[in-house]
Amino acid sequence: MNIEMINKVPTYNANIGSEFDDASVMLKKKNTDYTFRYISFLALGAVFADTTGLIDPRISITLAVIFTILSIRFYSMLKKRGYAEQWTLTRIAAESFKSEWFKFAVGGGDYPLKDNVKIEDSINEFKKNLQRFHDEYIESMHGNFKSYLNQVAIEVDEGTLDIRKRDLGGRIDFYKNERMKNQMTWYQSKSREMKNKYEKHVRFFRGALLFGFLFGATMMLNSWEIISIGFLSENDFFSIAIAIGFALDGINSANQYERLASAYEKSFRELKDAIRELEDDKNDIKTDEAVFWDFVEDVENNISSEHKSWSLTTSSKNIH
């Protein structure tokens, strides 16, 4: 598996989790590539099996068998290497690390700013939690990829501590702008991207089915000798069109464009509502540290629900 990750996680700052993000992108690309290959080869096998009238039947059936074997080969490799599952686990690791860093930096969740809590204790708790996330991630991975992040060194940089030292208003502004608005913008752009990709696949799918319907109707008229087109009697273009159509639908289902678009749109609206709540002077978020702690925890839980939901469709393992 040609995927490289460093063995040492660097000092944590606003780019926390970037090495997991990069690995997640590569794993997703691998999953998409192998999915496209096995579905495409399967469709090509069906095409050549149904075109014995256009080329030498021996060549046609030989190509059909070859492409079908290639399809089975890539399907087996896809399942054996578990790209979809490992991509999901890596993305969850990245988002979990980011979420924990933001909570620590602004004094939310498990890292509240209290007079009776020493900064050293909060730092140790933060490191312990990240180490736990890392260990659970390594335990869940398999194959060659498991060895790429077998060590972790977690240090808190001065920039993170400077954010934590700000007053409540300063930390609220940082969290709103650097976490909530940035994440909201990302969700909005990804939702639009997934919607566009889904609509393109729908158009191609409908076109393939229309192509199949027209050929099917023509072949029916040809069989009833209402029209006479010789090559239609020797080739099953109707089945070819249907195979292509369902190949396109299979690729679309594997990429889950429609599901992703809905999930990103839902997360975008939740963050938009949370920002509206934060900016409302009628609540106590801007004046009460304890209320802010809970607010940050709720926001991070909402964000994590989006990426952790992937585990329901890609892995049978428990992901915490």
Largest sheet: none
- Alpha carbon gap, first and last residue: 26 Å
Inertia-based shape: elongated
Oligomer state of the chains in this structure: single chain
Count of discrete domains = 1
Number of strands: 0
**Mean model confidence by pLDDT:** 78
Summarize this, please?
The protein has 320 residues and is mainly alpha-helical.
Architecture overview:
With 320 residues, the protein is mostly helical. It has one domain (18-314). Helices cover 74% and strands 0% of the residues. It is built from 11 helices and no strands. Helix 1 packs antiparallel against helix 2, helix 1 packs antiparallel against helix 8 (237-255) and helix 3 packs antiparallel against helix 10 (289-308). It is elongated, with a radius of gyration of 26 Å. 33% of the residues are buried.
